[in-house]
C-alpha cells in the first residue's frame, strides 16, 4: 500500500464575492459558464477528488484557464485561505510524522511552518528578490532556517552547478534572461529540505535544451531524493515524460487521472484523446 501525501476530497474553488451562491448553483447542476453569467463567480476548480502518493511526480495538465494553477495553489493553502473560497477537504500527510493536517482549516502559524519546511513552491514568474544576487536568492530559504553561512554557501554552490549557473552567482536577477531566472527559482526550490515540491510551469521560459536537462534532473530528484512533486504543465509531452501519474483538467474539472500508458491506451473522453493523438502524431513524424 502506497503512502498518501495529499488526499483531496470533493474540492470546489470559487473566485468572487458570492461563493455561497456559486456552491448552491453547483449543487443544482449549473455549469461553470452558467454560474459566471448568472452570478459573476468563477468556478476555478469543480469537484476535484484525488490522492498524491509519496515519492511520485503527479502532473496536472490542461489548456490555459483550465484551473491547473488554481488547484495547485490549494495544496499549500494559497487558494482557499487568502484568495478564493473552497469547499471540500485538502489533507496533507506529513511524510515524516505521518500526521494529517487540514490545509484549508489549520491555523496560520502551522501553514507558515509547512510552507517553510514541508511544501516548497516554484512559480512560473520566478518570485526572485531583485535586490539580492543569484547566490543570495538561492540561499534565502536556508537563511531563514538559520543555517550557518558556510553551509549555505556549500549547498547553494551545489544547486547552482545543477542548474548550470555557477558563473552567474554574483549577478542580480535583472542581469539574467527569463530562462536563467527560472533556473534560479528552481535552484532555490531544490535547496530547501521540503519533501514536497509544488511546481507551476517551472520550465515555461526555458529553451528546449535546458528544458530537457531539467526534466531529467526532476526525474533524478524523485528517484534519489524521493521528493513528492506536483507539477503543472500545459505541455502533454512534458507530462508524459516526467509524470508518474497525470491528471487532465478542462474547465475546472479533472477529466481523467492515470499513468501515461492508461491515458494513451484508454482515453476517457474526446479531449483526452485529442491530447494523446497529437503526441502520437508528433512522435511518428520525428521518429
Ligand atoms: N486570484 C484569482 N481571482 C479571480 N479569478 C482567478 C484567480 N486566479 C485564477 N482565476 C481564474 O480561475 C480560472 C482558472 O485559472 P488558472 O490560472 O488556474 O488556470 P490555468 O489552467 O493554470 O491557466 P494557465 O495555464 O493560463 O496558467 C480562470 O478563469 C482564471 O481567470
Automatic annotation (TrEMBL):
This is ABC transporter domain-containing protein. PROSITE patterns: ABC_TRANSPORTER_1, ABC_TRANSPORTER_2. Signal peptide: none annotated. InterPro entries: AAA+_ATPase, ABC_osmolyte_uptake_ATP-bind, ABC_transporter-like_ATP-bd, ABC_transporter-like_CS, P-loop_NTPase. The keyword Nucleotide-binding applies. Residues 30-276 form the ABC transporter domain. Keywords: ATP-binding, Nucleotide-binding. GO terms for molecular function: ATP binding; ATP hydrolysis activity.
